[in-house]
Each structure stands twice: as structure tokens, then as C-alpha cells.
Amino acid sequence: MSDATNTAATSTTQMPGKAEDPAVQVGRLGYVSFTTPDVDRLKEYYTKTLGFALVEESPDLVFLTTGSDHHCVVIEKADVASGRQSIGYEIAGSLSDARRRLSAIGLESELRSDIGPGTPQVLVLDEAETGTPVHLYESQTPSGVGATFDQRPTKLGHVAAYTTSTDNMRAFYQEALGFRWSDTVGDFFVFLRCNSMHHSANFIQSDNFSGMHHIAYEARDMNHLQTMLDTLARDDYSLFWGPGRHTAGHNVFTYHTDPDGHTIELYTQMDVMTNEELGYFDERPWHEQHPMYPQTWEVDLGMLNKWGPSLGEFPR
Question: Which of 36, 104, 163, 247 could form a disulfide with 303 if both were Cys (CB 3.0 to 4.6 A apart)?
């Protein structure tokens, strides 16, 4: 994750920060796109190993889902494998109103109808710092995919990326997109939420690395997570970290890499803030404080995994 010193884990309680009147109110993370030189290989990993449903495909483009949305993962053929080429968020309200309000705070956006199937109209703007295309949409076309109790994740949970400034990224997500602050680790790792879940986006400050850090898919409970991990083992994908429990977010985590080398987190039991007015997360017996408010955590290797021991170096 970053260089860290082995000091005692401490935290500073703060009230959650949010913009008073954001330009747009994102309701949830919708989808993320990948590029790959081998579409069939990555499609097989998602459909056979992770159990995603294939909704639409062409030789160079694949749309996959975990549920009722048309897609939550898009795979596109390219010379170089890369994650988080674009990221989609479902918003409350109309795209026309969102465009007007974004313009009022100095952010240009473009209303497009050619992004792809499942999202007839998309408002596209550039993410602060990274320039990654952010896609805003009102809803997706239904996938027609039925529910399942196999290894398929319940949803796309969150996406983490590098940035040159967590302060600028936090300001962009709060003021433009209505995210709320959940936690910070040191001065380099910030967690942001757009709904009751602890985070849908998190950013790591770095002058040396860029692009996606990891992407995470949710299991409904520990039994479901075990099914996922047994399926990974069947297909010869090994964990490089976990199972363990984080402190920030307190989710039970596991990490492995996909065929293109992207870091994939499978997790369950993430913190939830049901009541934003109260400003603290729903009580859990493994919390360090009761009630558990958003924290600024001191950097400490032990706090990365409450179950220990911690990982010395997170793959880039």
C-alpha cells in the first residue's frame, strides 16, 4: 500500500466532512472498464472463475454483470492491459441538471449517446488529477440476468486508484459528485463513500505510481467468500494476502491477481453508515471505538490487518 513504520496504531476521531450542496449526487458505483490484449482470457476469468454473467460481446468488447444492471465490468481489446480506463456512477436527478450544475462550478462535461449498450445517455467528465473519464448516468438497461447462489459476487464494491493529491481528489469527489469522507490513513490514503457503504472509491497518493491500485467485489457473507476462494483455488489462482480484517472499513479481505496482473479484492462485512445525521458507522463488535466515527489513522503495518501479521509490500 505504501511505506509504513511499525508504530502503535492510533486514530483521530473526526466528524464526517461533506459538501453542503454538491453539483451532483452519486448514488452508487456502477461499472468500471478494462483494456486487455487478450479479451478471451480475461472474459474466461470473469465468467468461469468469478461467475459473472456475459450480457453482450463482440470480438473486441465484452459486457459483464453480477446482477440486474446491464454491466458492471467492460472489457475492451487494446495493445496494453490497463484497469479503470473509465468509471461509471449512477446519479440522482437528470443528466441535464447535472451538466448545468457541474458547469456552474467550472467543470466541463459532455452529454453522449455513443458510450455503449446499457447506458443510452452518459454525461462524461474528466476526473481531477488523473483525467480518467467519469461516466454519469441515470440508470442502466436491465440485464435480464437471474439471481444466483454460486461464486458470483453480489456487486462491484469499490475501485482504488493512485493520485498525485488525495486532497484534490477528495475535494473533487465531495464537491462535484456528493461523496462523503469515511477514513484516512496517514496523509496518503483516503476512503470516500457515496451511499451507506464505507467506501466506493479510495485513493492513494503517489508521485511514482499511477492508474488503478485494486478493484473489489463483494461477497454476501463468509460462506459466500469461502465459495469464491475455493473456486479461485480450483482454477489455480492463489491469494497473495488474506483472509484478514482491515481497520479502515473493517471488511474481511482477500487479494489475488487476475490474468493481466490487476489486483482483485474479494471481501465481505464492510462497515455501513445507516444514518448520515448521526455520523457514525453501525456498531460492530470488532470496532475499536463505540460509536465508530470516521478516523484519521496513524500509519502502522499492524492496522492494515487486525488479524495479523501484515503484508510488507503490496503489489503495484
Answer: 247
